[in-house]
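<instruction>
Derive structure tokens from the sequence
<entry> Chain with its tokenised backbone below:
===
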Amino acid sequence: MIKRLCTLLATLAVIGTMSLGTAHAEPGKRVHNAMQILFSPSVPDAFCTIGAVGTDRYGHKLAISAGHCIRGAEYADREIHENIVPVYDRQDTGFGPIGYVRYFKDPEGSMVGHPTKDYMVIELVPQVTLSSQGPHLKQTGELKVPGGHVSPNALNPALDNERLLGADLFNNNELVVSGQLGVWYGRVTNNTNGIYQSHAPHKSGDSGGPAIWHVPGSAYPSDVNGFQAAGPWAGITKAIALGVPPYVYTSSANILADLRARDAADPDDVYGAGFEVTTNP
């Protein structure tokens, strides 16, 4: 499975480029999961998607997306305190930057050298409002799996939100995802070090987009409920890989565990440490 994941048929995002943001945001914008984002308004088709929004233990307002969405070796794998990588709402670039990238994994490394850490942290500007409600998914906190297998990125002892969903024949864990195809759900068929495969589909541009865990007994999205679903944040869209099914997701456990481990190594300087999904409606 590792070999299949490392030989990707397609990464989901058209890689963006770094640019300086000069516009100034005005108050009143709601930022939520499944929002499409740009890194340069002049390249509207080079977009990715927000997977979750919330706050960290330092009080930063943040969004999480996929690390492979941008390139820039001089900025990868370190905290970016400078406002040099602006992020825009693809549907409303006139608002100005909704935030700035503070951390991302090197795109080559995230696919080969450290596939479990393909994520990006965006600090949102003060003027925006966080929302747990996306077009189809309401996120109800972070997925916690008491007694589950531990993320390879976790410290010892691991927290419950750093444990992984099971994917064997005796587990029926399902992801519900939201992107350009609308809202879909599918069983987690494989878990390789916190990289999930699922039948829930996505397409190019959905990188970083939201996946929630289908809470057993809760309603599936359908025309009866307006194609809505609610559940804890379980991960973000990663890639289309060589495999069956080909749809691959980075677990929230891997992201949260790596954030905590990096914070332990460099206290008070890690954007995203202790990340919690917003409870705002």
Observations:
- Residues 252-265 form the longest helix (14 residues).
- The chain has three helices and 18 strands.
- The first strand starts at residue 8 and ends at 11.
- The CA atoms of residues 34 and 135 lie 7 Å apart.
